[in-house]
Amino acid sequence: MSDFLLIHGSCHGAWCWHRVIPALEALGHRARAIDLPGHGRDRTPADQVTLDSYAQAICAALDGPTLVVGHSMAGYAITAAAEADPTHIAALVYLCAYAPVAGQSLGDMRRAGPRQPLAPAIRIDKATGTFTFDPAQTGALFYHDCDPQAQTLAALCLTPQPIAPQETPLALTPRSQSLPRHYIRCTDDRAIPPEYQEVMAQAVPPAHRSTLPTSHSPFFACPEVLARRLDAIARQPEAAS
């Protein structure tokens, strides 16, 4: 049995993992998800949310060797947590996520991408320092292969995304880079271009790269398949140590 901590992406919360957690438990694992500061049920004001606060929330949720899975923007959050304290992190798993480049912010990386599919949907609120996605476009961007129940849940639960954490560069050291790291690329992703994910996946060893034929939301589109993929990662000796 392995422990998993599942970390959501922009505007999402722990709620998005509600199908993956029982699927992992059915495979004999312990799985948990948390709301990052300012997301889901966490009411931290947006102007107090930082990349460091994301990292500290993740570290505070760890109580033993854990595989930490980061979806989308959470690639930065889980890496920042490893840089802060890698003690309880058995492996980092990037799920169609931004794998940080040293000295660059997530925003820098997004703008450097080969295409900008999210740009037309982003709505910035300068007064609060947050952005949201145009509700009329989220289905096509994030959930086009997901069932109506999942899309309804997302429409009800998506929250504004604090901008500051995504504009904070991250320094990379062996604290995070020496950990076992895996990348799962989603080949039908319409939010982060799959070809850009392929570039980011080069940061991990070839044997640690895999694909899923889904949208940006495999936790809704194929939770059991995703759980089996995470189970396979957990069974690798280095991740179980």
Pick out its properties.
single chain; alpha/beta; Rossmann fold; three-stranded antiparallel beta sheet; AB_hydrolase_fold; hydrolase; methyl jasmonate esterase activity; Alpha/beta fold hydrolase; AB_hydrolase_1
Written overview of the protein:
This protein has 241 residues and is α/β, with parallel strands linked by helices. The protein is built from 11 helices and 9 strands. The chain has a 6-stranded parallel sheet, sandwiched between helices. The protein has a 3-stranded antiparallel sheet with strand order 5-6-7. Strand 8, helix 8 and strand 9 form a beta-alpha-beta unit. Helix 1 crosses helix 10 and helix 2 packs across helix 3. InterPro entries: AB_hydrolase_1 (IPR000073), AB_hydrolase_fold (IPR029058), MES/HNL (IPR045889). This is Alpha/beta fold hydrolase. Keywords: Hydrolase. One of its GO terms (molecular function) is methyl jasmonate esterase activity.
